[in-house]
Amino acid sequence: xxxxxxxxxxxxxxxxxxxxxxxxxxxxxxxxxxxxxxxxxxxxxxxxxxxxxxxxxxxxxxxxxxxxxxxxxxxxxxxxxxxxxxxxxxxxxxxxxxxxxxxxxxxxxxxxxxxxxxxxxxxxxxxxxxxxxxxxxxxxxxxxxxxxxxxxxxxxxxxxxxxxxxxxxxxxxxxxxxxxxxxxxxxxxxxxxxxxxxxxxxxxxxxxxxxxxxxxxxxxxxx
Amino acid sequence: xxxxxxxxxxxxxxxxxxxxxxxxxxxxxxxxxxxxxxxxxxxxxxxxxxxxxxxxxxxxxxxxxxxxxxxxxxxxxxxxxxxxxxxxxxxxxxxxxxxxxxxxxxxxxxxxxxxxxxxxxxxxxxxxxxxxxxxxxxxxxxxxxxxxxxxxxxxxxxxxxxxxxxxxxxxxxxxxxxxxxxxxxxxxxxxxxxxxxxxxxxxxxxxxxxxxxxxxxxxxxxxxxxxxxxxxxxxxxxxxxxxxxxxxxxxxxxxxxxxxxxxxxxxxxxxxxxxxxxxxxxxxxxxxxxxxxxxxxxxxxxxxxxxxxxxxxxxxxxxxxxxxxxxxxxxxxxxxxxxxxxxxxxxxxxxxxxxxxxxxxxxxxxxxxxxxxxxxxxxxxxxxxxxxxxxxxxxxxxxxxxxxxxxxxxxxxxxxxxxxxxxxxxxxxxxxxxxxxxxxxxxxxxxxxxxxxxxxxxxxxxxxxx
Lengths: 223, 466
What we know:
The complex is a heterodimer of chains A (223) and B (466).
Chain A: E1 2-6, H1 10-22, E2 26-30, H2 33-42, E3 47-51, H3 59-68, E4 75-79, H4 84-92, E5 97-100, H5 105-121, E6 127-130, E7 133-136, E8 141-144, E9 147-149, H6 153-164, E10 170-171, H7 172-178, H8 190-203, E11 211-214, E12 218-221
Parallel strand pairs in A: 1-2, 1-3, 3-4, 4-5
Antiparallel strand pairs in A: 6-7, 7-8, 8-9, 10-12, 11-12
Helix pairs in contact in A: 2-3
Chain B: H1 2-7, H2 10-77, E1 82-87, E2 93-96, E3 110-120, E4 126-137, E5 143-149, H3 151-201, H4 217-269, H5 275-304, E6 312-314, H6 316-333, E7 337-342, E8 348-350, H7 352-369, E9 375-382, E10 388-394, H8 426-436, E11 440-445, E12 457-463
């Protein structure tokens, strides 16, 4: 993937670029909003990683300008400001996701990959299929190898999110934000228990487990 | 140097403006009086002259030139306030009280003239007084001049005008003096306020303006300034306190992290130990610190804010149902009986995220401290007082009454909870959330001791109903 990092803190962008390159992505770094705007304008990128507060042109204004020009590349905002109003402001300006600093690197990679993937799928689907697992979004039915699996509403949402991001790591925070819509970190392993319940429903009785734990990151649904 | 500064003050400039306006009005008033009285005096004099001239013409018409001559001679010596002159057809004076007609060119019919009359006053000084006159050609070709001294009437006008000018001068002098006085008074009071502002700007937030007790707008301004400084001082003190606390709170985990890394380095150098393990451990420690830092910051911000940001109206039962759904599996897995009693369709105004987090913290604690076989109950109801209660009751060890106040403070962990994960910030955040919504956190005994367990804890977030 080709990523544009717009961040005024040189050390932060250097660390980010190193880590993302290590993860197999190509990174371009812009030191301020103006440079970021020009780079985003010229080069084709899969995801823009934009710091909110920067000299010359701040991140929100930069993304607003890009969106006005019809530039649709997904944007991940990075910010030290984590209150709901800040988050809402960022998403309203045209951001697609919002990550509050400080964050774990696994969190950043997982979100960048999720954003890039979202772009590929695009159109409205009514049937999700990952390996031999099928989800009918209209009939609210889930089958594995033709065998119906009975899920609670929340388990259904959880599995839907995992299937839409099949093959990618998703973090606990992502699940909490996207499936439960909470923006805080519980101290106990609440998400793990939900996952293990879901796992027992979709993997029990099958020789190959699909729902895998990724150490230090979160979970991944593999075909 | 005092005066120019004074002149620059607003009250003084206002005074000048009003003086200017007053002077303009006075001038217009004077002009009106002058035109009205002076014009009236001239008209009255003209009418009197005309009447006198007509009566003499009548004498002429009845008795001829000689009768006129006699009448003029007689009238000139009387106390009548008129000037007379009778001239022959060539303009040569024949009789009268003046020697020469002030009308320069003898008219064919009649001509009016204004002229000055030089007289010797009683005290011997010579004065020039204004006069009017009418010269007429009589049917026989002779000329008759009748004039009058209008100085008497105009004298009054002049006196009035002079009096008004004097009054205006007095007003201007008094006005300026009053302006200076008011400006000095106001500027003295304003200077006191400016001094306080300057002191605050230089960092002395303890400076306060003195109220004069007059209850006027200046006192109001001073009281407003004092109130503002008071709040500023309090909020800065709060921030400083929070900053000190955060610095203090992060010191011990940082020290621990440093010690562990140093130990790992020594071990690695000695060929023992596992660098990867040490890095993972350090990462975990750093994550823990970041979480702690985030929680402390959230608490500090909530404490510094007068009220929680982004408040909306919502149904707390619905919110609690969501949080309950999140925690139900983990409590069941721990072997706890989980129940939720939600009194549907209530209304609450607040920050949804903070209240959800507070409730999650309470459930976190309950699940963490209640031994297997126990029970956790989440309850949302409206109290008869109208307050909304979101409570979590468990059958764990509870909190001894003596510790209930202390346990809400940051980083306080009771002896029997040392081994459980967490930093001791959960209840502090709940209390901060409660306060930021004008509510409180209540801690009570749970269902009571039973079978070697309990007595349990009932933690209630009590918020004003909306």
